[in-house]
């Protein structure tokens, strides 16, 4: 009993030490901290949006249409008199939720398929990889566009379409990790102890495959936001009057020469959102990869 308690305490101390090491490595990465600060700013603005702006993001006032930036309208107004700053911070809610749920779909579907494909091999691997090949034959944006065309327009369908477009990336990534891990000594030892395949996958393969998956999930957040914005720009994503960065940019393209600020601010929001997740993903990669970690 005492040996078991000591072993549990030692494992707990190793986990805490590992977390501290990862955070110490991450916080020394200045670009990653910049990305984290940008993301935190978007999250705060999205949460407190009703408290910091008096305007309704969907209410039209044609008498205030196409006003330039001022103290009353920080980023100006659009062609229907709606405050652009208000629509951007409310749009952060939509864009971040789409990115989060789309990546969740990619994780929930892609990671299990990649695990069983890499661990079992043979006909399971062939079947899963042919499915991934079919999906990868389409560029992610075109796959999402085709899904929207099949499912119809709407926030839910955009999330499903964008999430489907990132599934093959997680399948391939997790499969590669599983192929390496299944040949490790601790997996062979578990098999020698008659552990079930399900136990080995959950207890040994999945935890050791998580590092690249976490990094890819962060990077995919930026990709999904960009894809959803592209659908909105084309008019097949989130529909007006719901504030969403891509649809705002698509509406402003008609005024890009006469009133460039209408397109500049939504475009800048998209750039900063995608950049934040890319910087965070690079920071996580450096922190989780012992070959890249510096002390």
Describe, in plain words, how this protein is organized in 3D.
41% of the residues are buried. The chain has helices at 2-27, 30-47, 49-52, 84-120, 122-136, 140-151, 155-181, 185-192, 197-234, 245-252, 261-288. Helix content is 75%, strand content 0%. It is an all-alpha fold and 295 residues long. It is built from 11 helices and no strands. It has one domain (35-50, 76-288): MetI-like fold (Orthogonal Bundle), CATH 1.10.3720.
Total beta strand runs: 0
Proportion of β residues? under 5%
CATH class: Mainly Alpha
Number of helices: 11
Q: Fraction of residues in helices?
A: over 70%
CATH fold node name: MetI-like fold
CATH-defined superfamily: MetI-like
Give the oligomeric state of the chains in this entry, treating copies of one chain as homo and distinct chains as hetero.
Answer: single chain
From N to C, what is the helix and strand string? HHHHHHHHHHH
The gyration radius over C-alpha positions equals 23 Å
- Overall shape: elongated
The helix/strand class is mainly alpha
Overall domain count = 1
Task: Quickly give the CATH architecture.
Answer: Orthogonal Bundle
N- and C-termini, Cα separation? 37 Å
Note the main sheet: none
């Amino acid at each position: 009993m005492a040996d078991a308690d000591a072993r549990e305490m030692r494992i707990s101390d190793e986990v805490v030490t590992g977390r501290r090491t990862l955070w110490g490595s991450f916080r020394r990465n200045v670009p990653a901290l910049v990305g984290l600060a940008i993301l935190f700013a978007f999250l705060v603005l999205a949460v407190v949006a009703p408290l910091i702006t008096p305007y309704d993001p969907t209410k039209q006032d044609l008498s205030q249409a196409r006003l330039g930036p001022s103290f009353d309208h920080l980023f100006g107004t659009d062609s229907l008199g709606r405050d652009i700053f208000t629509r951007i911070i409310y749009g952060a809610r939509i864009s971040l939720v789409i990115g989060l749920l789309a990546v969740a779909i990619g994780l929930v579907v892609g990671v299990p398929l990649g695990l069983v494909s890499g661990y079992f091999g043979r006909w399971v691997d062939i079947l899963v990889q042919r499915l991934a090949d079919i999906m990868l034959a389409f560029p992610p944006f075109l796959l999402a566009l085709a899904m929207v065309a099949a499912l119809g327009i709407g926030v839910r369908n955009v999330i499903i379409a964008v999430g489907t477009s990132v599934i093959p990336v997680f399948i391939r990534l997790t499969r590669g990790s599983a192929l390496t891990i299944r040949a490790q000594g601790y997996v062979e030892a578990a098999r020698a102890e008659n552990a079930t395949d399900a136990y080995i996958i959950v207890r040994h393969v999945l935890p050791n495959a998580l590092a690249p998956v976490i990094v890819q999930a962060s990077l995919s957040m930026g990709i999904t936001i960009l894809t959803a914005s592209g659908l909105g720009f084309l008019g097949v994503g989130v529909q007006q009057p719901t504030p969403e960065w891509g649809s705002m940019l698509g509406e402003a393209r008609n005024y890009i020469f006469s009133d460039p600020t209408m397109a500049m601010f939504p475009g800048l929001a998209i750039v900063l959102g995608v950049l934040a997740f890319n910087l965070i993903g690079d920071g996580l990669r450096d922190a989780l990869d012992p070959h890249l970690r510096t002390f």
